[in-house]
Amino acid sequence: MTAGDVDEAAAVLAERALELPELEHARTVAAYVSVGPEPGTLALLDALRARGVRVLLPALLPDNDLDWGAYTGPDCLVRVRHGSRMALLEPAGERLGPEAVQQADAVLLPGLAVDARGMRLGRGGGSYDRVLARLERAGADPALVVLLYDAEVVERVPEEAHDRPVHAVVTPSGVRRFR
């Protein structure tokens, strides 16, 4: 996809995601900043913030777990390189702790694909598997939403015992729900 295609898809994804009741009524949303060719999230983050939603963004810890910080706008983002892996945009400022995600009414999860059952294929680092396990242990039940391109919704992805299904996937062509 060209940079223009990615930007156009990001705008459509933001529009579709903002129509979700789960995000429309959310007071706190845990999200992420897209990198590279991932479906763009910045337009959505800014729109949520403009609605008065508290947006939490992850900061990768050395053990691949996630800490969280508040998103206060594009100026709060700093590029952080974690070893030899790609650089991520993370929120500058106060860290709220890994448990902060438990306050979220909705969690936007990155992914490479989602299948017909709602199972998400991540990048393999386990960061969001830890987040989902933390939410489950705490009895928290936020809406779990993945933003993808249409071709990334597939029939089946590999699944392990710790994997949990998401509730919805948003693509440029629409929303698919799994609960």
Automatic annotation (TrEMBL):
Q: What name has this protein been given in UniProt?
A: 5-formyltetrahydrofolate cyclo-ligase
Which cofactor does the UniProt annotation name?
Mg(2+)
Stated EC number for the protein is 6.3.3.2
Q: Which reaction does it catalyse?
A: (6S)-5-formyl-5,6,7,8-tetrahydrofolate + ATP = (6R)-5,10-methenyltetrahydrofolate + ADP + phosphate
Q: Which family does it belong to?
A: Belongs to the 5-formyltetrahydrofolate cyclo-ligase family.
Pfam families in the record, alphabetically? 5-FTHF_cyc-lig
To which species is this protein native?
A: Streptomyces glomeratus
EC class of the enzyme, as a word: ligase
Q: Which PANTHER family match?
A: 5-FORMYLTETRAHYDROFOLATE CYCLO-LIGASE, ATPASE INHIBITOR/5-FORMYLTETRAHYDROFOLATE CYCLO-LIGASE
Gene3D superfamilies registered for this protein in UniProt: NagB/RpiA/CoA transferase-like (3.40.50.10420)
Keywords in UniProt for this one?
Answer: ATP-binding, Magnesium, Metal-binding, Nucleotide-binding
